[in-house]
């Protein structure tokens, strides 16, 4: 009788359909991008938003327990199955945020389909699976859908994607869209209450400044706009290329604003641009005070513990002082990173190309690195 090995390679057992399915799955995994990774409130989970539209939860404890056992022999990287997978966006999922704290938190995601999906975290922690089937959430608790813009003769434009979202503590969610508009959503009423119009191109990023009732947007048009949430009027337009008080000037025009972040005092704003640099602004005077040259185009930035932390198109996490001095530069797992989240404990989470998530300690060591499946 033929051995099992011979049977495996017997062309009479060839299943072309199964091979195509397996090949497509392998390609999808190898080209997956994790656009956002956030630590869930009061729990052991990391939430991710990926290019295949999935929103998933991964157990940090399981990652640590499996660190030396479940390595892929081809890539020598840990591959993790999600603890829980939520209903997918129709297209890539670009961002996710947690609104609120502890049991009152809400998990929010946005994506290419122009929708914000929301799940109440309390139900997830308590194991309320009334909307679940086979471990997969059938539908979110609520959906907020972008409006369509009207053109000539009442024609409706395509629904614009939502590239980023931000929250405040007053029940509002802000979205940055591909139409160049930003919206303020009332979570309780599940409707838009304010529209911010003024950018000439689509929006990459957004953050809120609750203490002044302001929202800040960054656009492909190369500018940052600061908006008054009460009047929807522009308070200031910041252009890093025209900043006159910084010492390091870029060689050419800074083509787009890729990321924005404010510090905990809400007095300082940092924005990343396509000219391989960060610009630090004072929100009291709206003046640029520091220009920081980066090793690659910054694609995500945050400020934590008086440190400016950024990742971009090269596999490095760079930390700077407000004066632009380098504090550290750490090699990370993704060859190109698109998300960074930093926490008061010193832990930092980055994610990006290859479906990789890298959890880094305050000392720069890698707590856990895994590939999302």
TrEMBL record:
PROSITE patterns: WD_REPEATS_2, WD_REPEATS_REGION. GO terms for cellular component: THO complex; transcription export complex. Keywords: WD repeat. SMART domains: WD40 (SM00320). One of its GO terms (biological process) is mRNA export from nucleus. Gene3D superfamilies: YVTN repeat-like/Quinoprotein amine dehydrogenase. WD repeats lie at residues 196-237. Belongs to the WD repeat THOC6 family. This is THO complex subunit 6.
């Amino acid at each position: 009788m033929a051995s099992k090995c011979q049977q495996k390679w017997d062309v009479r057992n060839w299943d072309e359909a199964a091979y195509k399915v397996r090949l497509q799955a392998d390609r999808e995994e190898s080209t997956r991008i994790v656009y956002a990774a956030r630590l869930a409130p009061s729990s052991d989970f990391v939430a991710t938003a990926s290019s295949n539209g999935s929103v998933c939860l991964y157990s940090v404890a399981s990652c640590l327990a499996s660190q030396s056992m479940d390595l892929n022999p081809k890539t020598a990287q840990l591959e993790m199955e999600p603890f829980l997978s939520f209903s997918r966006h129709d297209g890539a999922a670009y961002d996710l945020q947690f609104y609120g704290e502890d049991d009152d938190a809400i998990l929010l995601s946005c994506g290419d389909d122009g929708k914000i999906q929301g799940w109440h975290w309390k139900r997830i922690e308590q194991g309320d699976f009334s909307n679940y089937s086979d471990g997969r959430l059938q539908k979110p608790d609520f959906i907020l859908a972008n409006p369509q813009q009207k053109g000539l003769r009442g024609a409706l434009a395509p629904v614009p994607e939502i590239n980023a979202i931000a929250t405040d503590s007053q029940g509002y969610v802000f979205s940055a869209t591909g139409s160049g508009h930003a919206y303020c959503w009332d979570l309780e009423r599940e409707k838009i209450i304010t529209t911010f119009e003024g950018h000439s191109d689509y929006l990459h990023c957004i953050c809120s400044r609750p203490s002044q009732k302001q929202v800040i947007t960054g656009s492909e048009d190369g500018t940052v706009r600061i908006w008054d949430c009460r009047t929807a009027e522009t308070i200031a337009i910041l252009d890093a290329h025209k900043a006159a008080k910084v010492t390091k000037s870029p060689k050419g025009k800074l083509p787009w604003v890729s990321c924005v972040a404010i510090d905990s005092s809400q007095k300082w704003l940092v924005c990343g641009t396509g000219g391989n640099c960060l610009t630090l602004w004072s929100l009291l005077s709206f003046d640029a005070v520091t220009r920081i040259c980066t090793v690659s185009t910054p694609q995500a930035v945050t400020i934590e513990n008086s440190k400016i932390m950024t990742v971009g198109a090269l596999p490095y996490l760079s930390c700077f002082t407000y004066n632009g001095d380098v504090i550290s530069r750490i090699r990370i797992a993704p060859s190109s990173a698109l998300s960074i989240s930093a926490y008061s404990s010193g832990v930092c989470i980055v994610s990006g190309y290859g479906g990789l998530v890298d959890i880094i300690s305050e000392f720069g060591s890698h707590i856990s690195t895994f590939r999302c499946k």
